Amino acid sequence: MMSVDMQRIQTYLSEHAGEAQELLERLCRQPSISAQNIGIAEMANLVETLLQESGFSTQKLVAQGSAPAVFGEIRGRSSFTLLLYNHYDVQPPEPLELWESPPFEPTVRDGKLYARGVADNKAEIATRLTAIRALLALYGELPITIRWLIEGEEEIGSVNFDAIAEKYTHLLQADGALWEGANFGDNGRPELMLGAKGLLYVQLDADGLGVDAHSGSAPILPSAAWKLVQALATLRSPSGKVLIPGFYDAVKEPTEQQIAALAAQDDTEEQYKQAYHFEEFVDGLSGLELRKRQAFAPTCNIAGLLSGYTGEGTKTVLPARAMAKLDFRLVPDQDPEDILAKLKAHLVTQGYGDIRITAFDYCRADMTPIEDPFVQRIQAIAEAFAGKPAEITPLGGGTLPLLESLRKRVGLPGLSAPGNAAYWGSAAHSPNENIRLADLERAVQFNCYLFASLGEA
Amino acid sequence: MMSVDMQRIQTYLSEHAGEAQELLERLCRQPSISAQNIGIAEMANLVETLLQESGFSTQKLVAQGSAPAVFGEIRGRSSFTLLLYNHYDVQPPEPLELWESPPFEPTVRDGKLYARGVADNKAEIATRLTAIRALLALYGELPITIRWLIEGEEEIGSVNFDAIAEKYTHLLQADGALWEGANFGDNGRPELMLGAKGLLYVQLDADGLGVDAHSGSAPILPSAAWKLVQALATLRSPSGKVLIPGFYDAVKEPTEQQIAALAAQDDTEEQYKQAYHFEEFVDGLSGLELRKRQAFAPTCNIAGLLSGYTGEGTKTVLPARAMAKLDFRLVPDQDPEDILAKLKAHLVTQGYGDIRITAFDYCRADMTPIEDPFVQRIQAIAEAFAGKPAEITPLGGGTLPLLESLRKRVGLPGLSAPGNAAYWGSAAHSPNENIRLADLERAVQFNCYLFASLGEA
Asked: Among A88, A363, A375, B255, which has the minimal tally of Cβ within 10 Å of its Cβ?
């Protein structure tokens, strides 16, 4: 179906090897921690400069006091318009003591590049930009029109993305969208991800006393820490089932087509176990049942816990306060505001109505159907590039808050294709985040092939 | 019964007003945080120098690599020998951001002196030493022999006190012991405390993964934080009852004499509520039932909790590890090693056998009976000084690990008498620890009267 001259592209890329890595290290050297508001303006400037230098007409998109999103456009030869999405912000690097090299000093060890954000998702910015530069150098123009939006608030739940998408809807029109990064599996199969879970992120604060007390008064003073622990224990069974009444009301069974896609996935259980050093999946699951649980189970996760004395040695204190951070990952049709209301009602019913709830993020799940023609076209291109059948994930485990807004404001089909260079051991959101350098070169090749193929009839 | 010339003592003290405060500020300016091993050697030197300057023959007692305990002796006129006990170490000052003035810069505000350790228990070192200096200045000798042991590891559970007491038993012989600090109530009644609870301090560490994970994998990866929360929730009912099987086996009912002592205590419930800013005691208790619970209920307290991301904003992480620090306050006949074994067995039974338990402190409760002649003599002296009936606490809420060792190695009757200057609002172990300066002067007077009275027939 396509007449892309990959030979010529390969030759060019070989002659310019190392360009993507150089670009990536430059991106990683600039901290851009949205949760702590560190380096965001500097990073937006760096990204805009890189796009301009590569031939994009650019502008910064700001709405409701958001961090600036960088928007760039290059008009191409064919009528096809592709919207690319990435984010330039990263997760906080803590706990720092677990990093083997400083998180913002990109470091190569054993063929891997280590830095905060290298996998999530600065590598994809680097590989897409390197591919675009290569095509422009080779052909003097792009095969398709590319519109590229790179936001700075993804890791804090894309809190202003909807306002940006509403204000700049005209810039985001396209034939289809490619979000941030899927990858090639170790088996060489291209991964396609057709949706992402929703998110509700809350902080629970329990107050017991105005000030910490000597724990000798523990027989008679209220304990914030015990209150929080006992309230948390009512939220979830030891096997992971969420016990908030009504939590599963909107959850639908997966379709046969979705189950078939999961069944066709390769087994990555051992890779998971190696990456995270554990022995058994939840409930001893494996195979298709494990994949169904991962794909379609909504969760209540404890992301943080803090109370009292946490240093070395002992301190016999009855802490005044206790705090938990929870993230709920939601599946299609679960409404985060409804889940929040049910959480509040449940805590009241259980006698914990005085625990304060602060909600940070609300996001609905979103999914493009397997049958969508844009999905099928990307699938065909990816399979032609790889010479292997794609692995399709109907609903990814993470959350891409932009999906809900793109659906509502622009209405595009979209998915993740393997333009990133992350892998199963990338430790996104964790210390020692890394990519394999070999994956970086292949991702550049794939992006070249993808953009070129979309320009063919 | 006594012919102590309080008039003469008062006059002397008035002429030397401020001496105790000056001494106390000097003691508080020197950090001495045993849990963090900060300033311990310097503090031991300071205490020994102060004792030497006041006429004590001194030595440092070290056993098993302990922090040096300072021992001093002055032989007195009568045959009565009194053993005094204090500690020069303090609790860690964290959380620092809640202090209104730096914890090791003693600061006077509104007639109160603020500093870490000022109430627990550097004030008592200052008031005892000031009283001894006054009696020596007035009479050229002490009315009784005073042996004084000031250790440096009380706030970490007096981990080497038993080794010190065993090695130096000959130095600790006496007719009775006065431990660290009871006080006068706001009603002017002298408080006597005849015992202290035991302690078992443990840290629980739950491991789920080798490294933190993205919480998008929460449906299938084991969660250390949930495991810890759910394990903790099996330890204690929401109303405070400890659910470890056999935990209460050794607990005895209080005697009628003990209940009578509790019934004769003044009501301090409102002071408690003001000091700690809360509305209701546990289970809505008040009056005698509240006092019985405080005096005789063993507890399981959460002193610290830590897992995952605890900074500002959000981080969607599935934490690799989770930690809790627990202190169990025990009553007479509960054996901390037995309780530890029962805790371990309970966690195994509940399916949490893989949670690691590190035990820091073991200490049995100890109590001198109300009927003991030394108790009755101190009670008579304190009531004569105050002109009011004493308030007797048969078993204090805190823990004095030395009591078990003194009982075992020396066999002395002992109690706490009001020589300290703390009060209900002192916030021991908490930020903004403080004493009222007016209480300091009275404590010096009382210590003079006490030592002088014990020298009378």
From this structure: B255
Q: Are residues B408 and B313 in the same domain?
A: no
Q: Do B314 and A327 touch (CB under 8 A)?
A: yes
Ramachandran angles phi, psi of A433, nearest 5°: -55, 140
Residue A278 lies in a domain: no
Contacts of A20 (CB under 8 A, 6+ apart): A126, A127, A130, A440, A441, A443, A444
- Cβ neighbours of A306 in B, within 8 Å: 305-306, 310
Closest CA to B205 of B357, B351, B94, B347: B357
Q: Say how many domains are in chain B.
A: 2
Q: Note whether A348 and A316 are same-domain residues.
A: yes
For residues B231 and B315, state if they share a domain.
yes
Residue A1 is assigned to a structural domain of this protein:
no
Residues of B in contact with A316 (CB under 8 A): 199, 201, 301, 303, 327, 398-399, 429
Sheet with strand B299-308: strands edge to edge: A356-363, A198-207, A321-330, A299-308, B299-308, B321-330, B198-207, B356-363
For residues B330 and A18, what is the distance between their CA atoms, to the nearest angstrom?
66
Residues 400-419, chain B: which have Cβ within 8 Å of A? none
Q: Is residue B406 one of the residues assigned to a domain?
A: yes
Measured CA to CA, the distance from residue A37 to residue A29 in angstroms comes to 16
pLDDT digits (tens, 9 = 90+) for B207-263: 999 999 989 999 999 999 999 999 999 999 988 999 999 999 999 999 998 999 999
Per-residue pLDDT reduced to its tens digit, A121-131: 999 999 999 99
Say whether the ipTM exceeds 0.85. no
Residues A160 and A21 in one domain: yes
Same domain for A78 and A95, yes or no, is yes
What domain range includes position A451? 6-196+365-455
